[in-house]
């Protein structure tokens, strides 16, 4: 009998156990972060269940309202937002919430306040629900300076001050990927146990990949460095093999593939969207944080993505992130363009 193999199958590292182990490294810790994370995980499990039976439960249709981004809200968008807002407030560990679905930030009542600020996109890529493409939840966590004197300025911090970030992907399996500033770890939901089990410890993105991911439908509006980089992906000047194009259109799915397989994901600024399209606080920052923790880079076309300071909660930004060498290659095209005065 393979006793070692049996031990691995029975000694399961759940996400709760993993976070408690991390917590034990900090004697001053009171367990607040663990409680907050448990509520985020619960929200993800609920949304995963809702996504899996959305068609049967008639949750796919439009809710008849338009969110702050001008996108028509799906019933699942509305449901997911309510689930996470309620879960985060009931944790008693949050003081301020920013959701993609809500125009205004949510200030938690003083009696229920904790020290954490959570920014999140409750259901990214929801327009893909009906065709079965992977969608997900994205979140980032900050600490407030003073939970009793919380203001909107407390959330308008650069991404490099995040304490943790992650996403939950609802696809062929439900996967929760998180970093608390010490590498990236992936957990897969075991439906029979109702628990997220560590399946991808210490994720490291390959230094270079052979996949590029971008919406080429926007090509006519791109800046010159992006056009030149994508041309080089297709027709490499050094005689190497061309890169493969993979673009799902669901950020969580595209980033998840990029993290595991390497390569580059781009949603750059262009003539149509000079400030970019993705939201800075709850899309660009969390994914950039994860990418850097996994050994990659995140670049805006002008500088490091995590160094940006938001001026408003729904601010947009361009982003180019992925394998370290691939992002360096894009940077070289931007540097050459700047040197030529383009």
Automatic annotation (TrEMBL):
A Pfam cross-reference name:
FBPase_C
- Is the keyword Metal-binding assigned to this protein? yes
Location of the protein in the cell? Cytoplasm
- In Gene Ontology terms, what is one molecular function of this protein? metal ion binding
Q: Which cofactor does it need?
A: Mg(2+)
Record PROSITE patterns: FBPASE (PS00124)
Start and end of every Fructose-1-6-bisphosphatase class 1 C-terminal domain? Answer: 205-334
What's a single GO BP term from this record?
fructose 6-phosphate metabolic process
Q: Which PANTHER family match?
A: FRUCTOSE-1,6-BISPHOSPHATASE-RELATED, FRUCTOSE-BISPHOSPHATASE
What family does this chain come from, according to its entry?
Belongs to the FBPase class 1 family.
> Could you tell me what this protein is called?
Fructose-1,6-bisphosphatase, cytosolic
- Organism equals Arachis hypogaea
């Amino acid at each position: 009998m393979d006793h070692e193999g049996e031990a691995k199958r029975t000694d399961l590292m759940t996400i709760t156990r993993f976070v408690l182990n991390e917590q034990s490294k900090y004697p001053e810790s009171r367990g607040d972060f663990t409680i907050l994370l448990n509520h985020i995980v619960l929200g993800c499990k609920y949304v995963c269940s809702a996504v899996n039976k959305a068609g049967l439960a008639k949750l796919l249709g439009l809710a008849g309202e338009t969110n702050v981004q001008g996108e028509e809200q799906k019933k699942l968008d509305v449901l997911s937002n309510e689930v996470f807002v309620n879960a985060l407030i009931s944790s008693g560990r949050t003081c301020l919430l920013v959701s993609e679905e809500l125009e205004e930030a949510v200030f938690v009542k003083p009696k229920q306040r904790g020290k954490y600020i959570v920014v999140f996109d409750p259901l990214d890529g929801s327009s893909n629900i009906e065709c079965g493409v992977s969608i997900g939840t994205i979140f980032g966590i900050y600490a407030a300076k003073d939970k009793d004197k919380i203001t909107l300025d407390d959330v308008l911090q650069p991404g490099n001050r995040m304490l943790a970030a992650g996403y939950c992907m609802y696809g062929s399996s439900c996967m929760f990927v998180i970093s608390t500033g010490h590498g990236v770890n992936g957990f897969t939901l075991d439906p029979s146990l109702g628990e997220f089990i560590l399946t991808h410890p210490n994720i490291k993105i390959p230094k270079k990949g052979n996949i590029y991911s971008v919406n080429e439908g926007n090509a006519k509006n791109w800046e010159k460095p992006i056009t030149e980089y994508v041309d080089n992906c297709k027709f490499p000047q050094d005689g190497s093999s061309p890169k493969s194009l993979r673009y799902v259109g669901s950020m969580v799915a595209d980033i998840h593939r990029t993290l595991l397989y390497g390569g580059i994901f781009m949603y750059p600024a262009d003539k149509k969207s000079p400030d970019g399209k993705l939201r800075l606080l709850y899309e660009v920052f969390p994914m950039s944080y994860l990418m850097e923790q996994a050994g990659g880079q995140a670049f805006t076309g002008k500088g490091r993505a995590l160094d940006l300071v938001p001026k408003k909660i729904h601010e947009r930004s361009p982003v180019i992130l992925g394998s370290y060498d691939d992002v360096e290659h894009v940077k070289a095209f931007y540097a050459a363009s700047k040197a030529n005065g383009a």
